[in-house]
Amino acid sequence: MHTLLAGRGRVKPSPSRHVATHGRAIAARDLTLWRMVGAMERFPDRALPPAFTVGTAIEVRGHFRGEWSRGFEVAEATHDGYWIRRLSDCYVLPVEFVRHDIRRVS
Fold first, then answer.
1. What DSSP state is assigned to residue 86?
2. How many CB atoms lie within 10 A of CB 10?
3. Nearest to residue 59, comparing CAs of 24, 79, 87?
4. How many domains are contained in the chain?
5. Residue 104 has what pLDDT?
6. Can you tell me the distance from the alpha carbon of 8 to that of 10, in angstroms, rounded to the nearest whole number?
7. Which of 29, 51, 76, 84 counts the highest number of beta carbons within 10 A?
8. Residue 25 and residue 9: Cα distance in Å, rounded?
9. What's the CATH code of the domain at 69?
């Protein structure tokens, strides 16, 4: 499930808030991720349909500063996210993007 953290680097550990689960103490952020993964496993057919079709002009959010950049389009929509093509040279970027890191050009 590399797309959840694609380009994000390591996740900082959360403060020492722990929740007991099945006799073990786990960090609250791990519990949230555990619940999300469990829900996806229980309801795999309830995945959201792609919001963007191939060829849709989009902006891509930069991972360092969070700024939006134009000049991209959707090359392929998958179950996990989107493969993005840069319009200036038609290069398909080597990282799959999740839905919240792209938006339609306004």
1. E
2. 6
3. 87
4. 2
5. 94
6. 7
7. 84
8. 25
9. 2.30.30
Residues across the chain: 106
Q: How confident is the model at residue 41 (pLDDT cuts 50, 70, 90)?
A: low
Q: Given the structure tokens 């040279």, which residue do they identify? A: 89
Residue 13's CB is within 10 A of a number of other CB atoms, namely 9
Nearest residue to 60 (alpha-carbon basis) of 74, 44, 41: 74
Q: Is residue 31 part of a domain?
A: yes
User: Do residues 76 and 97 share a domain?
Assistant: yes
Q: Kindly tell me if the per-residue pLDDT of 99 is higher than 80.
A: yes
d(CA 74, CA 53): 7
**Which amino acid, one-letter code, is at 51?**
A
Helical ranges in 1-106 per DSSP H: 28-42
98 in a domain, yes or no? yes
Is residue 33 situated within a structural domain? yes
